[in-house]
Amino acid sequence: MPRRRQPTARQERLGAELRKLREAAGLKAREAAALIGSDSAQMSQMESGVAGVSEDRLRSLASHYACMDEAFIEALVAMASERTHGWWERYRGLLPMPFLDLAELEHHATCRYDVEFLYIPGLFQTEDYARAIYSYRVPELPHGDLELRVRHRMDRKVVIEGPAPIPYAAVIHESALRIRVGDRVAARAQLTHVLEVSEADQVTVRVIPFDLDGFAGAASAMAYAGGAVPKLDTALRDTPHGTAYIDSEAQLGALRTLFRKVEAVSLDPERSRDFIHRLTKEL
C-alpha cells in the first residue's frame, strides 16, 4: 500500500494497536515482519499509520500474535478496510488536521461523555458562543478562518442531533454555565439551547453546583469517546500544547472511573434542568 504523507489520528491508532499486539507477543519488529514476508521498515510504517495494512495481513499478524479476541480483531479489520469520506473532508486543507481527526473520532464513536468546568461542551455550543471563543484567540484569526471553525463546530453536532445520534452524557460545572463568553443575550440563548438539547432521549446533562461540599475534582475535565470495543475507546484531555489522545487501557479505565465519580456527585438530570432554567431566568 502507498505511504501516507499525513496519517489521520484514526490511522495512527490502528498502527498503535498493532504495535501493542506485537509487543504483547514478545516479538521485535523485524521478527514480526519476517512472519508475513515483509521487513522492519514496512512494519514500522504500518505501526505508525504511515502505511496501510490489508485485511489478510492484519489477520495473519493477529494469528501470529496469538490474539484470541475476535471482536477486537474484527474492529481492527473494519478500521483497516474502511474508506470513509465523511462531511469533515470538505475542510481538508482549510482547517488544521486536529479538527478533522476529532470529527472522524466522533463519527465512529458508539457513545460520548464530557466533563467541562470552564466552557459549555462543544457539541452544545451555539454559533454565537463558539464565535466568541474563537474570536478571543491570540493572534486573532482572519475572518474566513474564524467562520470555518465555527461552521465546523456546528457540523459536529450531527453526532447527537443528526439522523443516527449516539448516547451523550455531559457533566457541566456551574462555572461554565455562568461565565458569559458572549453578551447577555448570547448567554441566555446558549443556556436555552442546552435545555432544548437535554430533552433528547439520547442526551443526559448533569450539573455540578458551586455549593457542592467536598468536591475536589476540578481537574477532571475530559472528553471520552466509546469505540467499537472498549479497547478502542479514546479519551481527550487538554494540555498546554494542545489536545492529548489517550488510548492505554489503564488510563482509559481510570478515566471511566473518574467520570462515574464526577457523575455520581452531580445533580440528577431533572434537577440539573431546573438549575439551568433558573440561571436562564436570571439573565
What does this structure look like?
With 283 residues, the chain is an alpha/beta fold. It is built from 13 helices and six strands. The protein has helices at 9-24, 29-35, 40-48, 55-64, 70-81, 97-108, 127-135, 143-155, 158-161, 174-178, 184-198, 249-265, 269-282, and strands at residues 111-116, 168-173, 203-208, 222-226, 234-239, 242-246. Strands 3-2-1-4-5-6 form a six-stranded mixed sheet, with helices on both faces. Helix 1 (9-24) packs across helix 3 (40-48).
Tally of helical segments: 13
Low-confidence stretches: none
Distance between the termini: 58 Å
Query: Strand pairing plus helix content: what structural class?
Result: alpha/beta
Gyration radius (Cα, Å) is 21 Å
Strand order in space, largest sheet: 3-2-1-4-5-6
Question: Which H/E pattern describes the elements?
Answer: HHHHHHEHHHEHHEEEEHH
Overall pLDDT metric: 95
By DSSP, the count of extended strands is 6
Range of helix content: 40-55%
Main pleated sheet: 6 strands, mixed
The global form is globular
What amount of the residues lies in strands? 5-15%
Descriptive labels:
single chain, 283 residues, alpha/beta, six-stranded mixed β-sheet, 13 helices, 6 strands, 51% helix
Q: What's a concise summary of this model?
A:
With 283 residues, the protein is of the alpha/beta class. It contains 13 helices and six strands.
